[in-house]
Amino acid sequence: MSVFTIEAGLALLGLALLLVEAFKPDISRRTLGLTAIAGTALALVLFIFAPHDSASLPGFIRPWHQLDNLALFYKGFALVITILVLWLTLECAPYLTRFTVDGKLGEMFSLPLIVCVGMMWMASARDLVTVFVSLELVTVSFYVLVAFARKSAFSLEAGVKYLILGALSTGVLVYGIAWIYGATGTMSFDGIAKALANPATSKSTALFGAAVLLCGLGFKVAAAPFHMWVPDVYQGAPTPVTAFLSVGSKAAGFVVLTRALDAFMVEGSIIGSEIQGFLLVVGSLTVLLGSLPAMFQTSVKRLLAYSSISHAGYLLLALACRESARFDLSSGSVVAFYLATYLPMTVLGFLGLGLMRANGLGEDIKDFAGLAKRNPLLALLMTISFASLAGLPLTAGFLGKLFVFLGLADHGYWGALSCAIIAAAAGFYYYFKTILAMYTTEGTDVPALAFSAPAKAVAGALALAILILGVYPKPLQNVLMSDRPAVVAK
Amino acid sequence: MSVLELIIALPLLAALAVGLGAPARAASLGASFINLILVLATTVQYWGKTGLAFTYSRPILENPSLSFAVGADGISLILALLTTLVMLAAIWQIEDRPPIFYVSSLLIGGGALGAFLTTDLFFIYAFHELALIPTFLMIALHGRAEPAQRKAVAWKATIYLGAGSLVLLAGLVWLVLEFSGGSKLTFDLEALRSQAQLNPLPAAKQAQIFFVLLLGFGSLVSLFPFHSWAAPAYATAPTPVAMLHSGVLKKFGLYGLIRIALPLLPQGAHVEWVQNALLLMLLGNILVMGLVTIHASRLDDTLANSSVMHMGYIFLGIAAGTDLALKGAVILMFAHGISIALLFGLCGRMRNQLGTLEYNKLGGLASHAPAFTVLFAFGTFASIGLPGLTNFAGEVLIFLGNFTEFKAGTLTSLQWTVILALWGVVMSAVYMLRAYRSIFHGSPATGLFMIDPAFSQRVPFILLATTLLVTGCCPWLLLNLMKSAL
User: Fold this and answer.
1) A27 burial class (0-12, 13-18, 19+ CB within 10 angstroms)?
2) What pLDDT does residue A272 have?
3) Among A353, A469, B52, B195, which lies 20 to 30 A Cα-Cα from A240?
4) pLDDT confidence band for A448 (50 / 70 / 90)
5) Average pLDDT, rounded, for chain B
6) How many domains does chain B have?
């Protein structure tokens, strides 16, 4: 069974669940949710054992899809995060249904499957049309998901903001694609790379197109100065959707960016150095505009939103460093590695937040006071998550940041490196402020906080993943390196 | 598998077990006792050897080359010995406290052991950070002050040490980039060291990197003028944390300078502008902090400030850079760690029993608590540098090490610094003897009563005092471990 068949099957499952939910109104959300999870898990198993070369794809799709290492990595990534988000939705359901119109969660279980398929296709895209179609599949589904808790004014506000800005960025993206097509006469990444390496191509047209395209993608990955929507949308969206946006949507944006930049910054590209400067400036700005405001947040969900912006900044800086002779990881693999470490720590953070919310607690830092007394295990797991997000050594978060910093230092981008270091220092402040709140002993007369055995198992597994990747990242590196030619000049 | 891996893992595993609900005191005491035995056995095995021993390496990444590599030479073993001794004493003296006290002590001790016994820059740095976090949390959560005040103290320490760690990270990354050679980034200290011997950098560049490392490591050791976090942090910290941080963890910065900065950048410390800056800063530690300490009116303030001041002598040994002075510096690191842990431990006990540490409210305790007085006297006299206790050996070697190339009539700036620094010894005598007199002698203060601790409660302090006496009378025990280490 080819990878493409699995993806198509997953999309069909999503549509089927949508229909079942519509025509069989008495079906329980547990059945729906478990079916979606089981379907995605089955897809993951099939995906692992499916043939992993482009030749296995059906003939009609081969001109538009590719299966290289990066694509495979992001496909697996999309499946894992979708399973986690579906499960988190089920766990938070009693709380979420208070804010939905009919007290049900139907589309919350079918749309993530569609998003997942969109992300998987995007990872394989060979040309800008496929990118655009799959990106829209993801974004349009998110319009619905963000506004799902319609009885909450915050969720509605978030939905409207995301819709308007999302639609605007889509327009910008299409405009950029049109200019690129005008300059190079092709939509495929290979063709664009070839045209850009040719000095006869009009430099100003190509540069304008590339810049507009990057602005459009900047909205999707929350790069400064297009990051304004993030705090409100993340805060208003239901927590599982926030986790999905923060991890899945970001990963999707970055796989497209990696592909586009591989073309724009190809060896001998006429616009390579300009694009690199653009990335360095935008990346430095993003880390700072994410980290510094985060220091003053009182809501943990908003704080995580700002921190998610600054993580996007580190990823952009990683993309600015092309391959280095002294470094086995290309910028694309550094980004993939960073995102792989980002997944467990972010999901764990939002999982904790969702569990607290399900127990009737708020999302402010002051609501975290005494958490260690109410539930020591949850406090310990959240500590691991936040410490890793801050980039504490021996956790997964440190290695991702270290690779970004080493890349910047190796290329001698000292300005960007200092911005990244300032942002990391600010990160230590706001994450540890939250950790400290959990262990303060004031306000300890509140009741104990319980959470289910599956929740314990999932959270424990995520925390374990953070710690293991922090001291033994080799398996992950092997996955990223296995069939890519070594870049090292030996 | 190396025995060093076991030594590093044991306290961390014990911390995990206690965190998950194992009996706190039994597990912690058991782990730190076994650890002390293991380190002693390892030291005995190392006796007579030179260079790095007990090495073992588990590769983690190939390029950039990163591995969990352990290995110990004389300096590492002396510091590991210091860590295990202080950890055992600090854990033993905890009484009626929640498990988090045991967990944090084990984490600080385990992190310090990891930093001293690994030979990969990545893990050296990482283990030190691991040990710092519980220090901050414990000051903020269980410090001995009002919540707002102890949080402020904890934040101050966090900001200073966090910024210092970042500067240090920048310096280490710079080292890695300079010394990695053409094709591969490596974090392995031995590989970097051999590369530094093959292709040494020009002296001017060595000086720049050394200065960055000096600022980074220096702020971790409360080098003047980056010292102002230290005194309030030690005065506020819960007793086991004060013992472990001032006694053990703070030595990490000095260890880093001796193990990383000096071997890789042998000329860096002796370029004139770096040396003069270092000498000025260490004189700030000795003379300025000496005067500040004399002014203190509470025992915890005196001890905390004196701990900052004594770092100046160790920096003096590093500045001299001669074999003799560096050996003196290592011995003084050991001696200061043991003596300050002893004093902080006794000080914590006094505060628990008496409720105050102000000199003008105390007096005449010697008649109530003779055994306690004797133990405190050991700490006091070691701190002053009385012959027969370890600190004396360290200080004398440092002073002599600065005069190995002495020409009559011309004194180098180093030697002038020594002459000025000698006044610090006088200041130590003034403030420590004043503290001793006003607490233990004179007329007993009304309403304050203190009895001697039971024998089992004295054991941790006796352990530390005996160590001071044994290594003070026989400093060759430590010197023999460092035959060629420097």
Assistant:
1) middle
2) 84
3) A469
4) confident
5) 88
6) 1
- Each residue of A392-424: pLDDT tens digit? 877 888 888 888 888 888 888 889 988 998 898
Buried b (16+ CB within 10 A) or exposed e, A454-476: ebeebbeebbebbbebbbebeeb
Tokens 């797991």 correspond to A381
A441 pLDDT above the threshold of 90: no
Q: Which of B127, B173, B182 sits opposite A406 (nearest CB)?
A: B173
Rounded to two decimals, the pTM is 0.83
Q: Which of B129, B163, B183 sits opposite A488 (nearest CB)?
A: B183
Following DSSP, what letter does each residue of A87-117 receive, concatenated? HHHHHHHHHHGGGSTTS--HHHHHHHHHHHH
Amino acid sitting at position A455: A
Cα–chain-centroid distance for residue A172? 21
Q: Which residue's structure tokens are 């405190």? A: B376
Q: What SS3 state is found at A65?
A: strand
**Quick check: B60 and A471 CB within 8 A?**
yes
- Domain-embedded: residue B386: yes
Q: What is the ipTM of this complex?
A: 0.75
Angstrom distance (rounded) from CA A210 to CA B387: 75
Task: Provide the shortest C-alpha distance from residue A126 to chain B (in Å).
Answer: 30
**Cα B41 from Cα A327, distance rounded (Å):** 41
A394 to chain B, minimum CA–CA distance in Å? 6
A486 DSSP assignment = P
In B, minimum Cα distance to A434 occurs at B137
Q: Which two tokens stand for residue B310?
A: 């004594």
User: Per-residue pLDDT tens for A352-372?
Assistant: 888 888 777 778 888 888 787
Which residue has tokens 């506004």? Answer: A147
Beta bridge partners of B65: B186
Note whether residue B398 is domain-resident. Answer: yes
Q: Are B377 and B122 in contact (CB under 8 A)?
A: no
Which tens digit of pLDDT belongs to each residue from B278-302? Answer: 999 999 999 999 999 998 888 989 9
pLDDT above 90 covers a percentage of chain A that reads 36
Q: For residue A443, what pLDDT is reported?
A: 58
Does residue B429 fall inside a structural domain?
A: yes
CA-closest candidate to residue B102, choices B232, B239, B304: B239
Cβ proximity of B174 and B196 under 8 Å: no
DSSP A273-333: HHHHHHHHHHHHHHHHHHHHHHTT--BHHHHHHHHHHHHHHHHHHHHHS---TT-SS-HHH
Are A398 and B185 an interchain contact pair (Cβ–Cβ within 8 Å)?
Answer: no
Question: Among partner residues B64, B137, B158, which is closest to A327 by beta-carbon distance?
Answer: B64
Domain that holds residue B403: 280-486
Residue B158 CB burial class (10 angstroms; 0-12, 13-18, ≥19): buried
Q: Rg of the Cα trace of chain B? A: 21
How does pLDDT run across B136-159, given as a tens digit for each residue?
888 988 888 888 888 889 888 888
Please tell me the distance from the alpha carbon of residue A434 to that of residue A375, in angstroms, as a whole number: 16
- Cβ of A328 under 8 Å from any chain B Cβ? yes
Nearest to B222 by CA among B134, B299, B336: B336
Residues 298 through 317 of chain A touching chain B, CB cutoff 8 Å: none
Measured from the Cβ of residue A156, the count of other Cβ atoms closer than 10 Å reads: 17
Is A394–B126 a contact, with Cβ atoms under 8 angstroms apart?
yes
Angle between helices A106-124 and A3-23 (to 10 degrees): 160
Name residue B328's amino acid: G
State the CB neighbour count (10 A cutoff) for residue B26.
11
Contact (CB<8Å) B64/A409: no
Q: What is the pLDDT of residue B486?
A: 60
- Give the pairing type, strands B66-72 and B53-61: antiparallel
